[in-house]
Amino acid sequence: MKKLFLFVIVMTLSLTGLQAQKKNVPSADGKAPQGISSVAAEKVIKLPMPEVGLDGEFRTALKNRATTRDLKSEELPMEIISSLLWSAYGFNRPEEQKRVVPSAINVQEFDIYVFLEQGIYLYDAQRNTLNNVVEGDHRAEISKQKHFAVAPFSIVIVANYDRMTKFKNTEDRDFYAAVDCGYVSQEIYLFCAMNDLGTVACGGIDRDILKKLLKIKNGKAMLAHPVGRR
Ligand SMILES: Cc1cc2nc3c(=O)[nH]c(=O)nc-3n(C[C@H](O)[C@H](O)[C@H](O)COP(=O)(O)O)c2cc1C
Asked: Which residue among 127, 191, 199, 212 is least packed, with the fewest CB closer than 10 Å?
């Protein structure tokens, strides 16, 4: 009876370990899955298939992330615009005034403009509003690239240098503005990937026109994203 009990314990422990090893997570005894330390000295480490931690919607978002230039002009509901803006630059921890995206030394330097048919709007993430700054349709002025004339709306990400005075020189400031902007852009891509929308990150935009249109005094239009059904 004692032997049977011991046998059951040993089998349970080794099966748990085996399962953990398969999933590449620590086993019940807290040890690292076999393989990580034993292959560390190899010149080439053959990785397991990228499956662990990539279940469900996270995998779908990453699998579908892509640039789409062929956008439809069909109007999109405000609900979609609201969720997209929150994903790109909303507050996910409002009690700490912190956003979905990180920023170097938490400067939160971006002004996010939405170009709609009826005008240009500034996103206020705190109040969840779009505030009109310019009237009329200026979507095609963002860039000569054809997707801007077609997309129902476009987002323009503007770095406001007044919020970046903590950086010791303009080289650092410009570097971090570009890095921070990448996070916003990727959120837009991922939201689109999850919602059957198309978008393209565009660096080829008309910054002089945007500077005048948006009255940018101390800052730079970094990237624009036309968004539409694909
Ligand atoms: C910073 C940046 C600027 C880009 N600028 C443009 C652009 O002005 N016009 C354009 O059509 N695509 C632009 N792209 C999209 C790239 O061409 C695209 O990401 C690349 O071809 C890879 O395709 P994928 O996004 O589907 O992986 C830009 C991408 C990045 C990251």
From this structure: 127
